[in-house]
Amino acid sequence: MVNRHKSIVILAILGLSGCSPTPRTTGVAVSGHVTYQGVPIADGMIIFSPPPELEGKGGMSRITNGNYSIGREDGPMPGEQVVRIHGLQVMKGEGNAKVLTSVKIPKTYNDETTLRIKIPKRNSMEYSFNLE
To answer: What CATH number does the domain located at 24-131 have?
Structure first.
């Protein structure tokens, strides 16, 4: 009984101090097409994240046959977003085993990305990336 009272007191203090779960905010639905050297990325991942100097929510999606789509619930918040694009390729191994390996996309598009876009304040947007 004492532990129950302690728990209630701790929860009340946290609530009063503003330490409550952050409400989930709806982002912007983003979709588009991704190519590398003019060829659609067959399989990959696109990640949107706020730059280090800003706070906010990002989002990510699988790239399939050059297309990606993120719904509003999982989409990035409006404002500047850093974009990272990783390509994957299915390689057959021994027998029926398959191994995913990275496609040779330069680091300037993923680990050392220089891609940034501005997400507008609206429900959805389309944005395509043509990587060289």
So the answer is: 2.60.40
